[in-house]
């Protein structure tokens, strides 16, 4: 056996077994006894006290033969790589020192530390195989089995005298001897392999017939043969030594190579000529190659972004082990500075930076990150303002920080925002846990888990039994702190004061909130919002925010209406999911009627937008002069985006229509008996108007337990032990009290004051105060506790839902043969009224949508309409498909509403929020984030970007949509979707946008109008209104100041906005100059743009020329009469747009002026950039450009091919790494319980 050397060890592949001692040994006499047997070490050779390394996850090992004395709960939860010390062995399992009560299988081990060095463990089968394989060392022939066998001599085209070569030939193969061997007879030379084959048949020399064992290598002749001159087999004309043949063939000019574009075999020295011979074919291949490079680059970016999120998840797991890492932190400043408003507020966890957790402000780009020391930056990770010297913590240090050296700015204080608060010592049902929900009045709001209480800031910190209530049982705190104070709470009446304390919740990748929607039958009680607080069986557990329901894992994911894991309404078959699946739930295992099963929707930040509360409160209408409308009303659905209520014991309805809340005594929305006071309130208001016929207006209040009637089915919200029995009816002894628990249903048989007797237990009594919900019209409705107060509308922001859209989009299905069709396609904006109804005008043309007996679309104003719609009942143009002029074959248009504000939810960090309609980009609407630097626009597909110049982080698969698609957007390769939904904004006479210009000093950050009350230096600004976002027509002072959108990551974000102002007429190369003279403007001497005609009728004016002229003189510059009597010259405008012009690119074509933009887009003489050398070339000369210098392009193509190869390999490696890091997240979900 050959001795193992360092070189041989270094060349071994991964997983190979190095040369080892053999299995068979010999006995040397009787002194030492039997010979030993050797085998490779396995997990069965582990001993007590060994330090071992786990290489498998606990979910991937076989537990079938675990010790009988140990229950499943004593199994050790582990993940690789974890180092443990063996405390005790039991069969195929061991007990570690740190966890002596838990056990783990030996099969999960991969390494053992022996003599201070890790050694690999092999499975028993592998060890046996490896040991037996080392018994017989491999022969040289076996070690080179994969190489082609060389059996003969050198067969070359020799460049010397053949007679000189003959004396070096082997007599067996008749070729020049390869690895020449010489016999004692010295007559001839033999090839080494020829001699071996000959001896296998005969042991004598084939020439002299003597013993063949006396043969030796002919070293001198071998060197002579390798120095023989040979000719190139490719016929390139060169000669070289035989030993240099391989080197020459590698660089031979005549060798064939594969064209990297068309895959043809081409001589290497003719490759340039091959490129020049057919440039057209190669252009297509180059474009395909460039597309692949673009796609691969994008894929690499997306995979790296995804890998960043994976690393963040892994970091969260490590941080959880190290200590308390807050999910949110609050930055407070003791004073004011130029940047205080941008830094002060709440920061959410935003992944990691430099291997430590990073936080991003929820409504801006301010960040807290680690870069040598902990820093707070205004714009991402660049311009930091504050720092902290403690670099030992895995999260930003809490407490007071320091500012930039020499700065007088106030120093910030950082504190952790609790995710769950525990309220104790309060009255009745107000005790319990309160989960972090949305923000309210700029501070965190907390909602009670399992009940309807809230803890929020509303002119002071308050704890309320109901969200809209304000009764004597509410608690308040005098300290207007940024976070809920822990102690010293007070109440309006006497009694115990509550205490508030934080509850630690570990960071998890699971969603913070889950909404259950659509559950039916008896499972309807499970609908609503659930918050993640704890865990069950090593997986997240969720509690219902407005009820007693839970979502838990017990073998499968299950949903129950109460806090018990002994039953369920719905379950999901996917037991491997780390958090509750969103779809695919069923009623399997539940015998009752709970169809249909629900769907789940995830949120990382609480928001009710887009969801219906599981148990809405009901309303009580009374005191109306028209008696039929009095009574209890239950919510039955939505109408115009707001709740619709129906009378429980009648046909009356309460609904929102045409901007007002209305009450009608019949189930018809077209009429009403009463109108509420004017206001776009989210819920019915308390004040209603007097009706001249129906008399006294009604009064409205929330339904309470006092509004329960006999025959109602009620649901308890308390346990009988927690209820107040102090005023129990005298005739009922304590033994007659009803025993009940939360979610228990009973039917009211008889009422007795604030008590009732249920139908099934008529001798038992129960308090109405313990009831939480009542079934009305088949649906559970929450009861408000207190005195039946009217709805408090100050706690809710009014919704803005109106019928009339601000913008509409006109689309044509196919290109129309009519010349005017393309002028109709595009966006139309609200443009006043016509015939008493709203009118729209195209933003970049004269086309209008107006009402004239019916709705019409006209190419030029309100004269020549092309399309119409028969529905004349609507106050705005009907949405959907229209019809064309009778007998026309033009395609019919489709009209849809353009949203003005979009809501982005479930995205990463600061990308959530509202996006307002701004300018157009690539012919489609563009949206900019309100309060942030994000954009939503179309750029080779719909994308959402964190900043204008950054790469698209989220995308939508529907690339054909003309508007941003609603619904699920995705981060590429990720399964976590975001949701995009429109926010309705009412039409208003107020301008859509305001530009603030000229603010100076420290006022630049606050944009204040006056300096009244401000002691610093800040020049007041001026404001400029816009209906459409644009930088055009801003004052010169603004331009001089370098006005731009404040975006730290996009200093060139305004490129698409800076359109040059068009002030003169059309300056074109006209096909018929004589026809043009009569249409020229006398001011700019060019053909009139947007032609205007004066009463004198002598000439035409450009619209902008006329406006500028009137600014200096109010008279017509030609006839000197009053200039106010000027009107658009519609006929002449059409004539000008139909004038023939020549192509400015000199392609030789002529076309109508109105078609110029379309022609220039596809003009064959248009210059384009060569994708290889970046030279500007006319489009129709691109093939000739390729043929002109193929050598230069070959180098670019080779570089491009190398990049494709590298990108493919990088994508492959990233995907492999992604598979490994994905497991880390699953491990984290199961290991947090340890």
Q: What does the model show?
A:
- Residues 123-143 have a biased composition (Low complexity).
- It comes from Durusdinium trenchii.
- Residues 1-21, 120-156, 579-602 are annotated as: Disordered.
- Pfam families: zf-C3HC4_3.
- Residues 170-209, 1081-1120 form the RING-type domain.
- The protein is α+β, with helices and mostly antiparallel strands.
- It is built from 19 helices and 76 strands.
- Strands 20-22-14-15-16-17-18-19-21 form a nine-stranded antiparallel sheet. The chain has a nine-stranded antiparallel sheet with strand order 57-59-51-52-53-54-55-56-58.
- α9 packs parallel to α19 (1190-1231).
- The radius of gyration is 42 Å and the shape is flat.
- Mean pLDDT is 75; it is low at 1-18, 126-149, 315-323, 786-802, 986-990, 1002-1008, 1035-1061 and 1220-1234.
Proportion in helices: 10-25%
Largest sheet: 9 strands, antiparallel
Count the E strands: 76
- Which term fits the overall shape? flat
Average pLDDT value?
Answer: 75
| Strand numbers in spatial order across the main sheet | 20-22-14-15-16-17-18-19-21
Q: Strand content of the residues, in percent? A: 25-35%
Distance N to C terminus: 51 Å
The radius of gyration is: 42 Å
Give me the number of helical elements. Answer: 19
């Amino acid at each position: 056996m050959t001795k193992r050397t360092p070189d041989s060890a270094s060349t071994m592949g991964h997983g190979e077994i190095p040369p080892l001692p053999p299995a068979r040994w010999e006995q040397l006499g009787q002194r030492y006894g039997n010979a030993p047997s050797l085998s490779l070490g396995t997990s069965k050779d582990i001993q007590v006290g060994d330090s071992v390394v786990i290489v498998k996850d606990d979910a991937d090992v076989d537990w079938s033969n675990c010790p009988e004395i140990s229950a499943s709960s004593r199994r050790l939860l582990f993940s690789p790589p974890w180092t443990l010390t063996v405390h005790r062995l039991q069969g195929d399992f061991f007990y570690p020192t740190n966890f002596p009560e838990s056990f783990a299988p030996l099969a999960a081990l991969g390494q053992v530390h022996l003599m201070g060095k890790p050694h690999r463990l092999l499975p028993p089968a592998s060890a046996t195989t490896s040991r037996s394989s080392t018994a017989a060392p491999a022969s040289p022939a076996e070690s080179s089995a994969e190489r082609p066998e060389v059996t003969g001599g050198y067969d070359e085209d020799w460049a010397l005298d053949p007679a000189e070569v003959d004396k070096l030939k082997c007599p067996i193969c008749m070729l020049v001897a390869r690895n020449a061997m010489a016999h004692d007879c010295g007559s001839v030379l033999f090839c080494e392999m020829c001699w071996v084959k000959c001896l296998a048949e005969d042991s004598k020399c084939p020439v002299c017939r003597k013993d063949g064992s006396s043969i030796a290598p002919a070293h001198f002749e071998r060197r002579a043969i390798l120095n023989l001159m040979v000719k190139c087999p490719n016929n390139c004309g060169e000669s070289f030594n035989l030993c240099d043949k391989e080197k020459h063939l590698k660089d031979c000019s005549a060798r064939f190579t594969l064209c990297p574009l068309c895959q043809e075999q081409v001589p290497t020295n003719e490759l340039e000529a091959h490129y020049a011979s057919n440039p057209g074919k190669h252009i297509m291949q180059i474009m395909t190659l460039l597309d692949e490079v673009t796609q691969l680059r994008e894929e690499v970016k997306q995979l790296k972004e995804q890998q960043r999120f994976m690393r963040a998840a892994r970091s969260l797991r490590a941080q959880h082990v190290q200590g308390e890492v807050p999910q949110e932190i609050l930055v407070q400043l003791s004073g004011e500075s130029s940047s205080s408003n941008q830094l002060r507020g709440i920061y959410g966890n935003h992944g990691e930076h430099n291997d430590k957790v990073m936080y991003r402000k929820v409504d801006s780009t301010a960040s807290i990150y680690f870069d040598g020391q902990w820093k707070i930056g205004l714009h991402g990770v660049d311009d930091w303002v504050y720092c902290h010297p403690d670099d030992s913590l895995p999260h930003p240090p809490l407490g007071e920080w320091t500012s930039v050296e020499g700065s007088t700015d106030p120093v910030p204080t950082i504190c952790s925002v609790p995710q769950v608060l525990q309220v104790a010592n309060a009255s009745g049902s107000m005790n319990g846990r309160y989960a972090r929900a949305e923000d309210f009045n700029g501070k965190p709001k907390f909602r009670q888990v399992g009940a309807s209480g809230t803890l929020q800031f509303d002119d002071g910190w308050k704890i309320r039994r109901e969200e809209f209530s304000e009764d004597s049982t509410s608690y308040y705190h005098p300290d207007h702190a940024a976070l809920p104070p822990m102690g010293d709470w007070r109440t309006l009446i006497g009694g115990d004061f509550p205490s508030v304390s934080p509850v630690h919740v570990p960071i998890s990748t699971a969603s913070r909130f889950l909404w259950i929607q659509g559950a039916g039958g008896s499972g309807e009680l499970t609908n609503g919002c659930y918050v993640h607080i704890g865990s069950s069986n090593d997986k997240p557990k969720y509690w219902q925010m407005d009820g007693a329901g839970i979502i838990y894992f017990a073998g499968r994911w299950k949903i129950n209406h109460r806090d018990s894991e002994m039953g369920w309404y719905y379950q999901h078959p996917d037991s491997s999911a780390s958090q509750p699946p969103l779809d695919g739930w069923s009623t399997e295992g539940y015998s009752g009627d709970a169809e249909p099963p629900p769907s789940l929707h995830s949120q990382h930040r609480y928001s009710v937008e887009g969801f219906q509360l599981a148990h809405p409160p009901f309303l009580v209408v009374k005191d109306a002069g028209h008696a039929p409308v009095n009574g209890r009303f239950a919510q039955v659905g939505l109408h115009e985006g707001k709740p619709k209520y129906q009378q429980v014991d009648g046909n009356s309805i309460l609904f929102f229509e045409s901007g007002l809340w209305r009450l009608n005594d019949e189930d018809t929305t077209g009429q009403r008996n009463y109108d509420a006071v004017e206001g776009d309130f989210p819920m019915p208001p308390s004040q209603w108007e007097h009706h001249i016929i129906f008399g006294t207006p009604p009064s409205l209040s929330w339904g309470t337990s006092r509004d329960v009637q006999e025959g109602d089915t009620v649901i308890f919200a308390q346990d009988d032990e927690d209820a107040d029995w102090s005023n129990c009816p005298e005739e009922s002894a304590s033994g007659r009290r009803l025993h009940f628990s939360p979610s228990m249903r009973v039917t009211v048989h008889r009422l007795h004051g604030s008590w009732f007797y249920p139908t099934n237990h008529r001798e038992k009594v129960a308090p109405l105060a313990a009831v939480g919900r009542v079934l009305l019209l088949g649906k559970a409705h929450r009861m408000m506790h207190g005195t039946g107060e009217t709805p408090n509308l100050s706690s809710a922001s009014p919704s803005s839902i109106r019928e009339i859209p601000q913008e509409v989009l006109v689309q044509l299905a196919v290109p129309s043969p009519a010349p005017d069709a393309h002028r109709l396609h595009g966006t139309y904006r609200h443009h006043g009224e016509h015939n008493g109804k709203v009118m729209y005008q195209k933003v970049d043309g004269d086309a209008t949508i107006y009402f004239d007996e019916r709705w019409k679309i006209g190419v030029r104003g309100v004269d020549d309409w092309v399309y119409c719609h028969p529905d004349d009942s609507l106050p705005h143009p009907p949405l959907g498909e229209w019809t064309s002029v009778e007998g026309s074959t033009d395609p019919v248009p489709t009209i849809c509403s353009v949203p003005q504000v979009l809501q982005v939810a479930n995205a990463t960090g600061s990308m959530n929020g509202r996006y307002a309609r701004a300018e157009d980009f690539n012919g489609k609407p563009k949206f900019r984030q309100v309060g942030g630097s994000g954009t939503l626009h179309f750029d080779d597909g719909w994308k959402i970007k964190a900043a204008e110049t950054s790469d698209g982080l989220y995308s939508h698969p529907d690339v054909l949509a003309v508007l941003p698609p609603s619904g699920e957007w995705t981060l590429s390769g990720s399964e976590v979707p975001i949701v995009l939904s429109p926010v309705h904004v009412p039409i208003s006479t107020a301008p859509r946008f305001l530009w603030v210009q000229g603010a100076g000093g420290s006022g630049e950050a606050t944009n204040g109008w006056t300096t009244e009350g401000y002691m610093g230096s800040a020049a007041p600004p001026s404001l400029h209104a816009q209906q459409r976002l644009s930088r055009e027509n801003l004052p010169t002072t603004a331009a001089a100041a370098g006005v731009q959108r404040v975006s730290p990551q996009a200093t060139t974000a305004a490129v698409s906005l800076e359109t040059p102002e068009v002030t003169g007429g059309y300056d074109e190369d006209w096909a018929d100059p004589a026809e043009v003279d009569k249409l020229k403007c006398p001011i700019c001497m060019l053909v009139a743009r947007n032609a205007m005609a004066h009463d004198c009728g002598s000439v035409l004016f450009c619209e902008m020329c006329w406006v500028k002229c009137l600014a200096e003189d109010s008279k017509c510059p030609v006839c000197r009469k009053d200039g106010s009597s000027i009107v658009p010259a519609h006929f002449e405008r059409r004539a000008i747009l139909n004038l023939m012009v020549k192509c400015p690119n000199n392609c030789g074509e002529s076309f109508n002026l109105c078609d110029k933009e379309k022609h220039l887009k596809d003009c064959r003489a248009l210059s384009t950039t060569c994708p290889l050398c970046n030279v500007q070339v006319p489009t129709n000369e691109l093939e000739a450009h390729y043929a002109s210098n193929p050598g230069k392009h070959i180098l670019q193509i080779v570089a491009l091919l190398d990049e494709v190869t590298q990108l493919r390999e990088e994508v492959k490696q990233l995907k492999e790494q992604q598979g490994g890091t994905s497991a880390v997240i699953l491990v984290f979900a199961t290991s947090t319980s340890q």
